[in-house]
Amino acid sequence: MALAAVAATVPTAAQAAPAAPAATTTVTAADSGWNDYSCTPSDRHPRPVVLVHGTLGNSVDNWLGLAPYLVARGYCVFSLDYGRLPGVPFFHGLGPVEDSARELAAYVDRVLAATGAEEVDIVGHSQGGMMPRHYLKFLGGAEKVNALVGIAPSNHGTDLLGLTRLLDLFPGAADLLDTHTPALRDQVAGSDFLRRLGEGGDTVPGVAYTVIATRYDQIVTPWRTQFLDGPGVRNILIQDVCPADVSEHLTIALADRLAFHLTANALDPANARPVNCLSYLS
Fold it and tell me: Residues with Cβ < 8 Å from 170, sequence gap 6 or more?
């Protein structure tokens, strides 16, 4: 749930703006080597990587660190904008999570058609690490996805350090979330969406899951709720890898080289390299 502090401004912006098709992010990042639909996956990295931004993120800004990192290592990398609201530019991931999962499904099909690959790997931050689970579980995504890597994912929702428990104390507050920022509503711990997502277990067969969390996460709280249960799951607390790492919810995805290394290991476990505090330098 990236940039949650901005969320308070979204209802006003959405309410004031005229109803119109939501603008897409115009920068494609092709100049940096990703979102290049002519990219052909290599034998070493046969699966394209689809990057899924977080709440109030977008397909470019969320990935200015990780996307070039993966491109430099030989991956075909793609990123989408999803969950756009009318009249709200740049800040996406605000629509109902189920609708966003359908957008992801269509985007994965586009990437597979362009690259000729049989499967993709998905890397998501915050909501982008949780939302694909709906795609995997209910929209046939498990047949098209090899691995899901969640960086600070909102897998079981958040209480925002307890702030979400205040919603019931302010008449109309929950209705405001429902109307103007459905994705925030869906990510509140205990929401109807998360209850349905969790029924029958956190995972689906055939997909490898990795969660990379930080104990300093101030958005998806408690941080332990990010972890998944089930076969094929690897849960990593980044401070277990390097106690000196002080990344919080945003920096772990935007700039943390340890998280980048751990992501690369999850995408190519057969060639995984040891990660420690010195990995910042490589």
Answer: none
Contacts 24+ apart (CB under 8 A), 67-70: 67/29, 67/32, 67/33, 67/34, 68/32, 68/33, 68/34, 69/260, 69/264, 70/34, 70/263, 70/264, 70/267
Residue 278's φ and ψ, nearest 5 degrees, are -75, -10
Q: Letter for the amino acid at 110? A: R
Burial of 282 (0-12, 13-18, 19+ CB in 10 A): exposed
pLDDT tens per residue across span 72-101: 999 999 999 999 988 888 889 999 999 999
Number of Cβ atoms within 10 Å of the Cβ of 137: 21
Q: Tell me the residue type at 19.
A: A
Other CB atoms within a 10 A radius of the CB of residue 152 amount to: 33
Q: Give CA separation, 201 vs 26, 62, 229, 278, in Å.
A: 38, 29, 7, 36
Angle, CA 54 vertex, CA 107 and CA 196 arms, to 5°? 80
- What pLDDT digit, counting tens, does each position of 185-232 carry? 899 999 999 999 999 999 999 999 999 999 999 999 999 999 999 988
* Position 181 confidence tier, pLDDT thresholds 50, 70, 90: confident
